Amino acid sequence: MKLFKFLIVVCITVLLTYTFNNRLVVQGTPIPPLGKFLDPNHGFWQNAERDSFPYQSQVELTGLNEPVAVKYDKNGVPHIFANNNHDLYVAQGYIIAQHRLWQMEFQTHAAAGRVSEIIGENGVNFDRMQRRKGMLLGAKATYEAMLADEVTNESIEAYANGVNQYIQSLTYKDLPIEYKLLGYEPEEWTPLKSALILEYMINNLTGYDDDLENTNALRLFGKETFDFLFPEHLPGIDPVIPTDISASWPFQPMETEAPLTALPSDKIKTSLPKPDPDNGSNNWAVSGTKTASGNAILANDTHLGLNLPSLWIMLQLHAPDVNVYGFTFTGAAGITIGFNDSISWGFTNAPRDLRDWYKIKFKDDSANQYWHDDQWKNTEKHIETIYVRGKDPFYDTITFTHHGPVVYDKSFGDEDNQKNYALHWIGHQPSLVQKALLELNRSSNYKDYLEAIENWDAPPQNIVFASTNGDIALRVQGQFTAKWKEQGKFLMDGSEPKNEWQALIPKTQNPYQFNPERGFVSSANQHSVDSLYPYWVYDASYEYYRNRSINQLLTSMDSITVQDMMEMQSNSYSLLPQETLPLMLDSLSMEGLSKEEKDVVNTLKKWDYNYLVELKAPSYFQAWWHQLNASIWDEFYTSDFALDAPNDYTTTYIIKNYPQYKFIDVDSTGQKESLTYLINTSFKQSLTNLEIWKENNQMDYTWGNYKGTFIRHLADLGGSLAGFSRYNVQVNGVADAINSTKRNHGPSERFIVEMSSPPKAWGIYPGGQSGNPGSIWYDNMIDQWRDGEYIPLLFMAAEGDNQEKILFNQILKPTE
């Protein structure tokens, strides 16, 4: 018996020792090595920052030429003062890593398809998709372009030096808590990782397409019906750059030749995951002729996923040839969105179809050769080794044609393993965006701005500009392909050379405005141009509502102030219900409605179309509109094939102008229902759905609750790190309003600058400067962001200025 008890004790001791020193996985959730994690001297306790600024006041860094001063203001924003550019970017890399190391490295793992190394086999399909799309291929091409430019190369090398010196200074005690929770350590930062950060954003902003969904719709419904359901231009659109009828477009467009071959007849059941089609932004610049101060004012808010740590971080960079403040991506040198002494700039996504799919015909199952231009050509094959935590590596063979990687094949993609589709994507091309940003940081006028953004290729953006001398401008900038009409709108035959990208549009032919007579420029991801622009321009994700609201407001406003701009960015009015709800209410029969249902009708009639968190009217409308769409487009939602239903703007156009159209019925009933019938039945069903939602969620369906906006930690998978996230944030707005908030998507920053001398600026974002959940700077700005408030941005002209506003000083000095 004593021996038995002894063996039990030994087994328990061994088990506890293993548990406390090794990472376990319980029901798919990683459990860190508890011994190290709970150690009061080294574990997670060390991440509970008791000091507002838990940084060393003096740090020695190898590679610095002279000391660098870093001054932190009351918002936790670092202001970096260096005596040369090399030291400036070494310091930036060190400071950003000091704040956001885990985030910046995790994003590069996601871009490179290396998540399985961290989370195990649950990440394998994601990693395969990233690698098959060619993310690393594009990042390597961009890295080579960075190397070829001396200034860019020096900047990213210096940045990497700073990041690595921070990493080398860390012990287990100092690691960000995510490394401790997930049980791994940071690796060396390389300039290639900065290229991967850019590729991460290129994918977010150009990775959406509907080629395969369009192909299905074309085959299922025919060309005439397709063109009616998915029109390229409808009445009422308000493009970023309207055609100047008096001058037209003063250039001769590049010529392209369309093939005579038919489109492939495939029907695709499964479409791979894509970025949110609402990834975009608002921006505008107003001339001094329309402002109270006489100074130009620029505003920008970027609409992306709402995450913690936040996508953006604020800082100021000061060296002899640059003094710039703004928002930057973790991993990128310089400032991305911001201002300097003379100019300001910002971005919105410029939607354009930048991904095309080609059907590949292989000679046989070996996929060693494919048919192109009437001959068999050799493929290239890459064997990707995906390291999987706790498992053997997964090997994925990716076949490359001259079009690009074959993403869909017999082992990945659609359920039909005979579909071999190659992807040609702008994300595979080198990008000089890092160079453009560094030059924008130093620009002092419109001419400099144009020269800087000449380097801007991907992701294409609407780049807004304002200056202290009063100029305003907006340019739709990127490297665009000249396409024949409908090229890339559907799956294309990969054997036909004329289906390839034949010519690039010269950047001098990109649309732009400079000091327009109306006194403002603006963009919100709508059509870049109208149908008079001489190139065929198409995208599936154009925005139809925010842009018109912005232009209507700016047209009506005079003596504009910064406060007006703040209120405008928080404007939660939507044109969608304004343009649809009256028709829906007019078609609603009051006979047979209960008192409660009549109360809902009265509430909707009194609603002013503002999406405020305390109201129920927005919830009533959204639930009703969703149910009505489900009834009209049931053929799309119930199809066995990948399909996208027509968008809200097209749906509104059809129900107003073609109420008898053949799709306006419930396909499954076998009889033709009227629009009035669908409006009435969907109204009742939507109220039933809301009551079910209320019971399931144990809360009332006010708009704030029903929308349920949340800001989730990047590693919060399935709510496992709910304490690091913020749920049920009661923020006004809706996707179609200027304040474009959805559940986990919305204004990832708001920024306003008045171009006085010196400029004055305000900003906010839904998070904080620190990436550490134990810091007071982790999520301290969320409530202000929610409420439409801003913090004034401290723009220092020199190191010794505004000392009363500086709370902490850090000196980075050369190693002795």
UniProtKB/TrEMBL annotation:
Q: Does the keyword Transferase apply?
A: no
What biological-process terms (Gene Ontology) are attached? Answer: antibiotic biosynthetic process
Q: Can you name one GO molecular function term for this protein?
A: hydrolase activity, acting on carbon-nitrogen (but not peptide) bonds, in linear amides
Q: Origin, by domain of life?
A: Bacteria
UniProt keyword Metal-binding present? yes
Q: Which terms are listed as keywords in the entry?
A: Calcium, Hydrolase, Metal-binding, Zymogen
CDD domains per record: Ntn_PGA_like
Cited Pfam families: Penicil_amidase
InterPro entries, alphabetized: Ntn_hydrolases_N, Pen/GL7ACA/AHL_acylase, Penicillin_amidase_A-knob, Penicillin_amidase_dom1, Penicillin_amidase_N_B-knob, S45
What's the record's note on cofactor binding? Binds 1 Ca(2+) ion per dimer.
Question: Which residues of this protein are catalytic?
Answer: S281
Instruction: Kindly list the cofactors needed.
Output: Ca(2+)
- Give the family this protein belongs to, as stated in its UniProt record: Belongs to the peptidase S45 family.
Q: What is this protein called?
A: Penicillin acylase family protein
From which organism does this entry originate?
Fulvivirga marina
